Amino acid sequence: MTGLFITVAPTGAESTKAHNPGIPLQPDEIVAQAVACEAAGAGLIHIHGRDPAGESTLDLAVLREIVDGVREQTDLVVQLSTGGSVRDGFDARRRVLELQPESCSLTCGTVNFGTEVFHNPLSFIEELYLETIARGIVPEFECFDLGHVTTLNRLLDTHGAPATGVVHCNLVMGVPGGMAGDARTMIAALGALPAGASWSATGIGRAHVPVMLAALAMGGSLRVGMEDVLRFSASELVRDNAQLVERAAQLAALAQADILTPDEVRVRLGLG
Ligand code: KMH
Ligand code: ZN
Fold it and tell me: What is the CATH number of domain 6-268?
């Protein structure tokens, strides 16, 4: 199947309403924006939870409320973050798989994350990966650095293919501490991906649009969302997540790429 899909990451763990009042934090806000994003062309949603005060949480009740709402009101493929925030422990991060999402993020290595450290030792990567296989969940391998792509290859060599047989990787580019958000770095990462892998890319902050253009040029899928970018341009804040999905869909149309529906994304990821 040709074509690309658009992932929306509406919330993340770090940004607040003080950074951008349009960011959805509570379950009802996230679900309402998910509906608008699906209408704008999104196929998959990457979900983080927040507590009533707006702080990042991996509380299963909060995540369940978001997942249930997204499932009731959209057809989007549901992906839960196992990254959480840099302050979350490994056990809480692993337990989100108990909610049995169709997909989960799975970061392939430790990375400096601004002034913090996002910890992903190999033992945790392997533990998460084996649990995705046991549960039939499609991992989205998050690569923040070129070494993470090397680890992904080692992981597959050691433990075999994911549950559905499809390897899907997201290049997270432009995190301060990770790989640069530019075309030559993307080409290096793509050259190292496992043969036949499905892939998307997202650029953080100012790398957002350049990474999207490079991904379109290289035939990849796109991830957008207020987890990754809060400014629409130098002079304008992002209004809401649908605005970012609309722009991605417009750029995909300019590149004459078909945008996959949620059910087509399921086929692409082997979920059937
Ligand atoms: N919040 C970052 C520390 C993921 O969702 O898997 C990690 C993150 C990656 O957002
Ligand atoms: Zn995330």
Answer: 3.20.20.70
Amino acid at the residue 190:
L
Average pLDDT of adjacent 10-residue blocks, the chain of 272 residues: 94 98 98 99 99 98 98 99 98 98 99 98 98 98 98 98 98 98 98 98 98 98 98 97 99 98 98 89
Whats the size of the chain, residue-wise? 272
Domain ranges of the chain: 6-268
- pTM for the whole thing? 0.98
47-78 as b/e, with b when 16 or more CB fall inside 10 Å? Answer: bbbbeeeeebbbeeebbebbbebbeeebebbb
Distances (CA, A) of 243 to 11, 13, 226, 231: 14, 20, 10, 11
Report CA(106)–ligand 2 centroid distance (Å): 10
Nearest of 160, 183, 158 to residue 173 by alpha carbon? 183
What residues line ligand 1, using a CB cutoff of 6 Å? 12-13, 81-83, 85-86, 105, 107, 113, 118, 142
pLDDT in tens, 258-269: 999 999 999 999
Q: Which residues fall inside 5 Å of ion ligand 2, going by CB?
A: 81, 83
